[in-house]
Structure to design on (85 residues):
């Protein structure tokens, strides 16, 4: 474990102490569990975004009619970024 120091608001400290007491754990363990839940939720949010993007990929027609994007993606990217220069 890595020792660290944090500052909590009075309300956060009160709530985390109450949580620790209810769970029968130390304040440090309560904070570790809260941090872990927050990190897991963040990971789930990113995974959800990738999953949603994967479902959308290829579901729209190119307004210019390109049908070879998978084979010529580098050229299309170069054209798109080159246009911004």
């Amino acid at each position: 474990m890595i020792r660290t120091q944090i500052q909590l608001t009075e309300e956060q400290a009160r709530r985390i102490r109450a949580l620790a007491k209810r769970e029968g754990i130390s304040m440090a363990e309560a904070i570790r569990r809260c941090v872990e839940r927050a990190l897991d939720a963040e990971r789930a949010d990113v995974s959800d975004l990738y999953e949603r993007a994967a479902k959308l990929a290829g579901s729209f027609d190119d307004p210019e009619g390109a049908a070879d994007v998978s084979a010529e993606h580098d050229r299309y990217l170069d054209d798109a970024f080159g246009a911004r220069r």
User: Anything to note?
Assistant: The chain has one domain: 10-82. Residues 10-82 form one domain.
